[in-house]
Amino acid sequence: MKITAKNLIKNYTKKNAPEVNVLKGINLEIPSGTKASLTGPSGAGKSTLIHILGLMDKPTSGEIFIDGEKINNYGNLRLSKMRKDYIGFVFQFHYLLSDFNVLENILMPVWDKKSEKIKRADELLEMTGLSNRKHHLPSELSGGEQQRVALARALINNPKILFADEPTGNLDRKTGTMIENLMFGLCTELKTTLLVVTHNQDVANLADRQLKMVDGQIL
Ligand SMILES: Nc1ncnc2c1ncn2[C@@H]1O[C@H](COP(=O)(O)OP(=O)(O)O)[C@@H](O)[C@H]1O
Ligand SMILES: [Mg+2]
After folding, report:
1. Distance of alpha carbon 189 from alpha carbon 193, whole angstroms
2. Residue range 95-133, pLDDT digits in tens
3. In what order do the strands lie in the sheet with 193-197?
4. Residue 79 and residue 88: Cα distance in Å, rounded?
């Protein structure tokens, strides 16, 4: 799926506080199947931007097109359906549910049809090298393994677009690089469009398109 953003602005307003201008007119296009990286200093607005592109937040103004279809005026129900059907997200923290094992966590987004999805979950366990860990709880895994589970969970519904916000920010460099490489490999294999926020330039170099963001603008 292609993502297009036109003149996205995001301002935060609060009573008795000055307005904060976080996104100052973002224009971008990520063609279908492209793997894009987004780098930039802390506070630049990277998370704000990918939350908006991932339909988890709304811009103050500007337009978002998914495969050329403008989605700004869609209601919350329609947006959450689009999110569920098309979008995967990996965050810096894994947000796995501690009382559920690895397999159950991966199936969480498709709990309503989990019997149909068990085969897919097994494939993803294989692809992420976790087949022998599926009955373990998150607390029984290393940080890198936990993040691989989060990646498998993000892919369970075959998303057309995967967003990842510093997915390896809490991991050591070597483990982080391994996981980001895995993510790029899986997105290539599954033809998933990818936008990943990363601080690792080696990983950004794997991307088809490298975006840099400073102070609310794409350079
Ligand atoms: N709810 C909010 N109210 C006011 N400012 C906010 C809010 N959320 C984020 N910001 C500000 O937006 C800016 C960009 O934040 P963020 O998108 O998290 O940047 P990055 O991910 O690049 O570090 C920061 O200066 C932050 O303080
Ligand atoms: Mg951030």
Report:
1. 11
2. 999 999 999 999 999 988 888 999 999 999 999 999 999
3. 87-90, 161-165, 193-197, 35-39, 209-214, 217-218
4. 13
Distance in angstroms (rounded) separating the CA atoms of residues 12 and 21: 7
Angstrom distance (rounded) from CA 211 to CA 39? 6
Give the span between the Cα atoms of 52 and 66, in whole angstroms: 12
Give the CB-side neighbour count of residue 64, counting CA atoms within 13 A. 24
**pTM of this structure:** 0.94
Does ligand 1 come within 6 angstroms of the Cβ of 211?
Answer: no
Q: Give yes or no for a contact between 54 and 129, defined as CB atoms under 8 angstroms apart.
A: no
Tell me the CA–centroid distance for residue 12 and ligand 1, in Å.
9
List of domains in the chain: 3-218 (3.40.50.300)
Query: At which residue do the structure tokens 């292609």 appear?
Result: 2
What is the spatial distance between Cα 142 and Cα 44, in angstroms, rounded to a whole number? Answer: 30
CA of residue 135 to ligand 1 center, whole Å: 38
Euclidean distance between CA atoms 35 and 24, whole angstroms: 24
Average pLDDT, the chain: 94
Indicate which atom in ligand 1 lies nearest the CA of residue 45: 17
44 lines ligand 1 (CB under 6 A): yes
Q: Is the CB of 48 under 6 A from ligand 1?
A: yes
